[in-house]
Design a protein that fits this description.
14% strand; 14 helices; 286 residues; two-stranded antiparallel ribbon
């Protein structure tokens, strides 16, 4: 992951070196060489994704009208918007990943994507089952993710009328009440890091609000740890503001898929390697 960017772009190589220096361990080697089990540790996965996303963004060299990110991606969006330095962001997300992993004993919780279930039916099942389970992600119409204690979450999944239930390969149940200890630990770190007002407006995760202030950015990052990611509302807010082209920056194309399910009429582009960068640069060439 990210090797193509480092091979082709000096700005990416410099960023990989900065990440290693900021974290005081060789994240760049783990990202490019593995082993996979080491990369899948949440404390490594989160800074790795931030690193590759910002490397791709800087190599692309274009300035968007708006930014947004899904969960961890909100950090990348805030770096792009000038609210956070890359160095501060990668240290924060390393801590975020460790706090989230440590908040719940391994195996205690799960996350599950509920395909084809209605929001109201999921909420009713949560109320009936009780226990520590919440809606974690509103990803797109017909795809909602729940998170929480394993047995309670499995009962909700069985009772909500989902056409398909997909247990996600994650190491902890993110964006639910079980993450409140992680949120409190992260708040102290966020308070110690300087934030600037945003040069580019961001639509945040917690309430799909457009923000430009440093205080709102910091508070949103704290709240999102244990609250739902309202991605469907985020994308709709951007569309309502006049955005018709979305560029997904970073590894993978998952968010482009969710945007397609939200509104098939908008243009979707992806940037994760040299070929993607060249294609998007060509698209916006004047």
């Amino acid at each position: 992951m990210g090797q193509d960017l480092c091979d082709e772009f000096a700005v990416a190589r410099e960023l990989f070196e900065e990440a290693d220096d900021a974290l005081d361990f060789p994240l760049s080697r783990i990202v490019r060489e593995g082993p996979e089990e080491e990369l899948r540790r949440t404390a490594n996965t989160q800074p790795a994704l931030l690193l590759v996303s910002i490397a791709a963004y800087r190599a692309l060299g274009l300035t968007p009208e708006r930014v947004a990110g899904h969960s961890l991606g909100e950090y990348s969006a805030l770096v792009a918007a000038g609210a956070l330095t890359f160095r501060d962001a990668i240290v924060l997300v390393h801590k975020r990943g460790r706090y989230m992993q440590e908040a719940v004993a391994e195996g205690y919780g799960i996350m599950a994507a509920l395909i084809g279930a209605e929001e109201e039916a999921i909420a009713a099942a949560i109320a009936e089952v009780g226990g520590d389970v919440d809606i974690a992600n509103y990803n797109s119409p017909g795809q909602i993710v729940i998170a929480g204690e394993r047995v309670a979450a499995q009962r909700v999944a069985a009772q909500c009328g989902a056409r398909q239930v997909i247990e996600l390969a994650v190491s902890a149940p993110f964006h639910c009440r079980l993450m409140r200890p992680a949120e409190e630990r992260l708040r102290a770190d966020l308070a110690a890091v300087p934030f600037a007002d945003l040069r580019i407006p961001l639509v945040n995760n917690v309430d799909a609000a457009e923000i430009t202030s440093a205080a709102a950015a910091r508070d949103g990052l704290a709240q999102q740890v244990s609250r739902s990611v309202r991605w469907t509302d985020v994308v709709q807010r951007l569309i309502d503001s006049g955005i018709r082209t979305f560029v997904e920056v970073g590894p993978g194309t998952v968010l482009s898929g969710t945007i397609r399910r939200i509104d098939r009429s908008v243009e979707r582009l992806t940037v994760g390697d040299r070929a993607g960068i060249e294609a998007v640069r060509t698209r916006f060439a004047t």
